[in-house]
Amino acid sequence: MAGASEAITRVHAAEEHGHHPPYLQHHFVSAEQQFDAAKLGMWIFLATEILLFSGMFVAYAVYRVWHPEVFQAASKLLDWRLGGLNTLVLLASSYTVALAVHYAQLGNQKRLLQNLWLTIALAGVFMVVKYFEYTEKFHHHIFPGGNYAYEGLQLPYVGQFFSIYFVMTGIHGLHVLVGMGVLTWVALKARRGVFSSEYYTPVEISALYWHLVDIIWIFLFPLLYLIH
Amino acid sequence: MAHATHHHIIPKALLLKVFVTLVVLTVITALTGQADLGPFNFLHVPLAVGIAVIKATLVVLFFMGLKYDRPINALSFIIGLLMVGVFLAFTLLDMLYRGDIGNLERQPIRGPQIEQMASPTTAH
Lengths: 228, 124
What we know:
The complex is a heterodimer of chains A (about 230) and B (about 120). Chain A has about 230 residues and is an all-alpha fold. Chain A has a single domain (about 35-225), classed as Cytochrome c oxidase, subunit III, four-helix bundle (Four Helix Bundle (Hemerythrin (Met), subunit A)). Helix content of chain A is about 80%, strand content about 0%. Chain A contains seven helices and no strands. In chain A, helix 2 (about 30-65) runs antiparallel to helix 6, helix 4 runs antiparallel to helix 7 (about 200-225) and helix 5 (about 110-140) runs antiparallel to helix 6 (about 160-190). Chain B is mostly helical. Chain B has four helices and no strands. Chain B starts with 11 loop residues before the first helix and ends with a helix. The interface between A and B is large, with 58 and 53 residues.
């Protein structure tokens, strides 16, 4: 009896020290398998995110083909400099989050944390610029759909452009806010020293999500702000 | 042994190069998007979308590291993109050519069988 329980304790100890690091969940064979499973799940989720946005991009294509002159005139009401600035801000944040993954892989805790906070700060800058853009539009009574009431540009169907503009940038902005939340959670974990070069899955996964938010904006910028 | 992970670490210099390229492409988009291309104004949309595709590809391959990743991840992502292509292509086909094929009056569907079934009552 005593010998059996002693053997079990020894097996447990061996598992904990030998094959079972604390972050490895019991239903995975190895840390590598756990990492690959998480990553595949994320890529499938990103594909569904693209499908979510594709509905809006298809709506955009249909309405633009129907009323190209309305899109051209309405697009002029958007400030391309602010849109361009936000593009650069998001690209920079993608770069910093890629650096965060790079430093996580090297086990550099300090640089990892710095780049995570920098990414969150850049996301904040994006939202602040977006806030100024939205309030400026609302100030001029530029609202989506039938609520559009800007005196400076009255055209049939012009509300449709702003329905598309507000829905697409709004849902994208929501993704930015969610990304800020997720990255903050990852940064707090990083500060507690949870991550190492062996285990950095949450850093990698949330970085993938953040890059997708960047990619969506890469398409939104020319399609909304730069219609000639 | 269980700790041995062999993930590809993308060099810092490469990440910086990709970032600089993305910024340059953004500037090109902003400039060409504003410019009057004269007889080539029809190129605005293909140019804007083309540059955006190049930028997105750079982000996916290097920032997201799909170039060095397992092919299964690329496969699941590409299937998603194909579905977007089907969605967009068929919606535009419908929208652009609706009504072009057979401008028919509304009438019930009639085939030889239906004619035969109907004929005994009408013939006599």
